[in-house]
């Protein structure tokens, strides 16, 4: 009786977790699509695709869990076990990749953002600029790799020494800001590297914990189904 109730409850939980898994998968895929120019590898969005595959398989798994708790069919119980095994493989793979990619992307981001900053040509004009680094700085409200002083280091490597930073470093509330170093309070304090790392690691860790929690619930569902199968022994092994 307890196993039946638990299996029915987990079936509804599986249905509810479809949205969480799909959200995490789409989030990771879109994030690496938007910032793909910062990475050399194209497979970093793989955890997101695995999460979407998991979300699709969770739907029939939840249906079988509720159905088995009402009417114990040997075929349904066997299919349910196979689906649980497939889900565990997908989720543990997605969780492991998400956790490792979180650490791996940090070093790549630092070199990529640093390269963009040092290759950027800017002048102390009213031209807002539309380069990749300008788009990142406006979107994330950041300045430089670690802070605005990175632009001073970049300018010291060239013959021209502008006494300003790109206008994309300006805070949104200062519409008159032109990147003048005499008004540092108008510039974004935080560097782009930390904001990018936090953004990407947060999405990866969200996916990691979703997959981890779901894997534990699936082990419980497999145990509950095993208890029900034990009370209805096999008469032969044709189902295998």
From TrEMBL:
Entry's transmembrane regions: 12-32, 44-68, 202-221
One GO term describing the cellular component: plasma membrane
Keyword annotations from UniProtKB, A to Z: Membrane, Transmembrane, Transmembrane helix
InterPro entries according to UniProt: Tetraspanin/Peripherin, Tetraspanin_EC2_sf
Recorded topology in the membrane: Multi-pass membrane protein
Gene3D superfamilies registered for this protein in UniProt: Tetraspanin (1.10.1450.10)
Broad class of where this protein is predominantly found: membrane
Lineage: superkingdom: Eukaryota
Subcellular localization(s) per the UniProt record: Membrane
Protein name in the entry: TSN3 protein
Organism name: Chaetops frenatus
Organism classification: Eukaryota, Metazoa, Chordata, Craniata, Vertebrata
Gene encoding the protein: Tspan3_0
């Amino acid at each position: 009786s307890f196993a039946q109730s638990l299996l029915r409850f987990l079936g509804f939980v599986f249905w509810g977790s479809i949205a969480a898994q799909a959200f995490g998968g789409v989030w990771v895929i879109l994030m690496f699509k938007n910032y793909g120019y910062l990475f050399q590898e194209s497979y970093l969005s793989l955890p997101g695709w695995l999460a979407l595959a998991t979300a699709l398989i969770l739907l029939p798994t939840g249906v079988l869990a509720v159905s088995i708790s009402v009417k114990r069919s040997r075929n349904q119980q066997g299919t349910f076990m196979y689906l649980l095994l497939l889900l565990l493989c997908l989720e543990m793979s997605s969780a492991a990749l998400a956790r490792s990619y979180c650490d791996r992307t940090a070093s790549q981001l630092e070199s990529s953002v640093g390269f963009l900053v040092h290759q950027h040509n800017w002048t102390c004009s009213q031209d807002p600029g539309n380069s990749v680094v300008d788009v990142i700085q406006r979107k994330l409200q950041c300045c430089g790799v670690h802070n605005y002083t990175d632009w001073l280091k970049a300018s010291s490597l060239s013959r021209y020494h502008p006494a300003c930073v790109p206008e994309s470093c300006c805070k949104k509330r200062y519409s008159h800001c032109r990147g003048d170093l005499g008004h540092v309070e108008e510039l974004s304090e935080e560097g782009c590297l930390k904001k990018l790392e936090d953004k990407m690691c947060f999405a990866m860790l969200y996916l990691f914990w979703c997959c981890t929690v779901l894997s534990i619930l699936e082990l419980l569902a497999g145990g509950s189904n095993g208890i029900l199968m034990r009370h209805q022994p096999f008469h032969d092994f044709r189902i295998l």
